[in-house]
């Protein structure tokens, strides 16, 4: 049998005239539905709308924080961008290093390979994302090998350079991951992500598995590398303090949708969406003299398989009206970089973090 | 040689007092001193927070109190004096030394779950998935009280209602996997409180749940603690949670108590270099955007390679060569309320 390469009916959308823009990534109406199957014939009986029409962009050199509670679709969004999973619908425009705009969703697997050099991922758990049978040279050098840097000597030199960059001693190159602590392992993961000089780094909860005293080290390192290498970060996390610390802009997700996005300062000082405000008031303040501030939301996060009608947040929202119960609000621009999806955004006066 | 001095308020009779507790794990590779001479007291109806990073011995400390340390771990020395209100075999003073009890014996079993209850970290793992919630909660009460099952059912429903489970009768017949994370943790709290314990141990009860749900659970714990006058040992690595809940704080590092004191003093006037550095290095919601955080250099030593002397000296900016790297500082009072184990403040040495 002769192998026929798969012919893609969908032509890759390559913008013929590259516009000059600073947006490195623009996500338009991204959707990822997972089918719920039941019965003998695995009939699809419903859909989990993990990511439901998400829109956002990232400018070159900035950090966009993506924050939300578990199950809100943060990780799914991040994985769709890398095409680690194929999105159901939507467009993901990425500006390549040669100034071309490419729609990641329309590319075939072979066409996406070269793009993966420019987009890299840092995973949450450095104990799970490093193969225990590979030493640092192989771990950090593998992306180079896959991408054609076969000269072992050159590769070794490059790995040594990367290890130095993330604050590890190059002499440790022959050691295996078990010899390193959590923070050091996360440095290895970062070195591996940087091996191919990416421009966009997607960090999925990079510090949540680390000890508090080590979190600060990794956050500082990420800030430092961003400045030195002009990296762009999509920083996914559930911890508002970490998000506030590292991001230029923040997008807040709730049940598969982005409900508010703004510059970090605007979001934390003048939140426009009641969920954002609730999220901030729920964070325990590390000062024993302010104890009354914690006002929790009632109820639980709804299931993305069976979301409520209208605005997904209305069952937990103290400001909900009849309109919120029936009509889903759209993400609207309220000021230069501030977008919010709430029917009552202009009348509500919400408290941020003082 | 100095004995570790008991910190805090001598006037009140403590509910639990842990004195120089040592718990070791003897492994083929060597002995791990998970808890190495820990002392603290818990007062009735107060919340004691134990803070520390992973591997600092917080969990082993509470496991030692409950006598559920897994083999090959064992308590090698120290006292765990618990003031029992229900046990018949307590001494005249009312105290029982839990460290002396048989870990599988009748006496500890009558205390565990009855007078000292535990809220584990992950309710998903702590509830059995093949028994209903009601079944598991009534089991706890039937073990400790001589009542019939319909009475136990009634108490369980009442307790679930109290912890804010909507429709508690229905919840009784549900399985743990049918509940959301927040509800599951509420049910777990209900189960822990079913026998009205005088001491509740909460081992990172909110780390596995979301921030909005965490706030609900913390408020619930605070409310229940006031209503039932239960003392709580609250273990966490989240300083925000501690600040919101605790009355007193114990800061642990590598199986040792570094500093102990009232919550306000620990947060506003920390003494020990580790406490200071820890407080500074954590990004809070109030820190300046995109600034460099002051960090603690290095990482927590491997338990097999504990440094000689003070366990923190290798990462400490104030370490004094000759003393910190040679001898182990004892926990000693530096102010009326606060005790610190650091040679910067005193030169009391703790001999092994």
Count of helical segments of chain B?
11
Q: What is the percent of helical residues of chain B?
A: 25-40%
Task: Kindly estimate the percentage of residues of chain B that lie in beta strands according to DSSP.
Answer: 15-25%
Structural class given helices, strands, pairing of chain A? alpha/beta
**What is the first-to-last residue Cα distance of chain A?**
69 Å
Number of domains of chain B: 2
Q: Which structural class should the secondary elements of chain B be placed in?
A: alpha/beta
- Radius of gyration of chain A, Cα only, in angstroms? 22 Å
Q: Would you write up a description of this structure?
A:
The complex is a heterodimer of chains A (354) and B (352). Chain A is α/β, with parallel strands linked by helices. Chain A has a domain at 253-285 and 293-354. Chain A is 28% helix and 23% strand. Chain A has an eight-stranded mixed sheet, with helices on both faces. In chain A, strand 1 (23-38) and strand 2 (43-59) form a beta hairpin. Chain A is globular, with a radius of gyration of 22 Å. Chain A starts with 22 loop residues before the first strand and ends in a 14-residue tail after the last strand. With 352 residues, chain B is an alpha/beta fold. Chain B folds into two domains: 16-115 and 195-340, P-loop containing nucleotide triphosphate hydrolases (Rossmann fold, 3-Layer(aba) Sandwich); 123-194, no CATH class. Helices cover 29% and strands 22% of the residues of chain B. Chain B is built from eleven helices and twelve strands. Chain B has an eight-stranded mixed sheet with strand order 6-7-8-3-9-10-12-11, with helices on both faces. In chain B, helix 7 (181-192) packs parallel to helix 8 (211-228). The chains are: A alpha/beta (354), B alpha/beta (352). Chains A and B meet through helix 5, helix 6, helix 7, helix 8 and helix 9 of A and helix 7, helix 8, helix 9, helix 10 and helix 11 of B.
